[in-house]
Amino acid sequence: MQSAAQVDLIKELSLAVGAAHVLVDDDLRAAYEVDWTGRYQGPCNAVVRPNSVEEVAAVIRICALYDVTLVPQAGNTGLVGGSVPRPARPGARSAIVMSLTRLTRLGRVDTAAMQVTAEAGVTLTTWRESAHNAGLDTPVDFAARDTATIGGAIATNAGGSRVLRFGTMRRQVVGIEAVTAKGAIVGSLDGLPKETAGLHWPSLLAGSEGTLAVITAARLRLVPWFQHTATALVAVKSIESGIRLLAALRQSVTSLDAVEVIAPAAMRLVSDHIGQPPPVSSPEAALYVMVDCADHSDPSEQLLDVLSQADGIVDSAITTDAVQRKRLVAFRDRITEAIAAASTEVGVPTFKLDVAVPLDALGDLIKAAQGAADADGCRLVPFGHLAEGNLHLNHIGASHPERLANTVLSAVASLGGTISAEHGIGVAKVPWMSLIRNPAELDAQAAIRAALDPADMLNPGVLHPQVT
Ligand code: 2HG
Ligand code: ZN
């Protein structure tokens, strides 16, 4: 039964955004209370769906008044539990989920500035389509593109396959609009590439995971749209030959767009899932490397040149044909989906660790991760972004996720790596933050957060342990 204060809270929220956009029924809230892997979940009082920055500000002021916490959510494609409510705890404040999926306005593309303004709920695919309609392209792309949104991608500083060419989401944000815990609208969407007037809101908010303010819109950088893409899938006989191939590509292929890595375990799983044999294979393959080169004219000659001189290649396929490319890229893009299906089959949510190490430590990382998975008795499926030394270590049927995390993340830290490369800390990795941040850094981060959100209202439990 709802308390009088809860009834008043729902009434006020309904006045702010319209009763149809305050979801209180169990069945309506359910999809917002659990992440898509099924690993992270918690209850909320209501899901509120504002339609403008002013409505976002009004909702935040109401939540502050009623002393409830607020969990910003958009595509809900996150992998670290940062966009769903925390599990219920005795004495904890109740939560409101703020869904930003109604903020879907997109501005006109400015082709001279190569920028566009998008609201937080615009998906990456829609962002890309708007760029293409103007003859341009987007610098960030990843497999969850149809559901993941601009707001979430900025809040987690998402990466994806084009980071080696254009950088992570942080670099694409030339202006931002957000609402602080006090209900103040901050930032600017003017998109001035040069502006040195003290604090830079895009830099502060990219990667803040909904803890410092709720992002409502951004001015985003666009890039040229290269009409010719050559994609190669290369089987290499050792990790070292994969890294030497990466070095050669970086040195001589100016159109290099993506260099992704697929471990044999991931290749087997995805190939079973999509019902097609791997396009390249060899019993000798230690790794598969997928390379994209994109340019205004056919880049395949440059790519072939490097491939023909590289050592350690045991098989390869290359194509520029759109249909063939799609077929090839599916072996990378559909790995997450294949893992989810395998996890559903064993009845345990996937345990995911997204980590990065310096390239020369990649072999040691894979060894440590395999050792930990073997000790747990689970199936390890590694893949990711070779150029950034970023591996997605997916564990199917893990029995002791905490123990796995302890072993693998400690190894990552001792190899000079990071416990999160592109998925964020969320709630999943909070206990291991001290492996990569010293006490002074953690104190400073907490102090910045407390200054902007003294009541710890925005996404408590994410990035830092939850206090109340
Ligand atoms: C990708 O690179 C995403 O496809 C998802 O970051 C990774 O499922 C994963 O672990
Ligand atoms: Zn990734």
Number of helices: 15
Q: Look at the structure and give the mean pLDDT.
A: 97
Low-confidence stretches: none
Radius of gyration: 22 Å
| CATH architecture descriptor of the largest domain | 2-Layer Sandwich
Alpha-beta classification: alpha+beta
In the CATH hierarchy, the third-tier topology of the largest domain is known as Uridine Diphospho-n-acetylenolpyruvylglucosamine Reductase, domain 3
> What strand order characterises the main sheet?
14-11-13-12-16-17-15
What general form does the structure show? globular
Topology:
Blueprint: H1 4-17, E1 22-23, H2 26-29, E2 46-48, H3 53-66, E3 69-73, E4 95-99, E5 115-119, H4 124-133, E6 136-137, H5 150-155, H6 163-166, E7 173-179, E8 185-188, H7 201-205, E9 214-221, E10 223-224, E11 228-236, H8 239-252, E12 256-262, H9 264-274, E13 287-295, H10 300-309, E14 313-319, H11 322-333, H12 335-346, E15 351-356, H13 362-376, E16 379-385, E17 390-396, H14 401-414, H15 439-452
Parallel strand pairs: 2-4, 3-4
Antiparallel strand pairs: 1-2, 5-9, 6-10, 7-8, 7-9, 11-13, 11-14, 12-13, 12-16, 15-17, 16-17
Helix pairs in contact: 1-3, 8-10, 9-12, 13-14
Bound molecules: (2R)-2-hydroxypentanedioic acid and zinc ion.
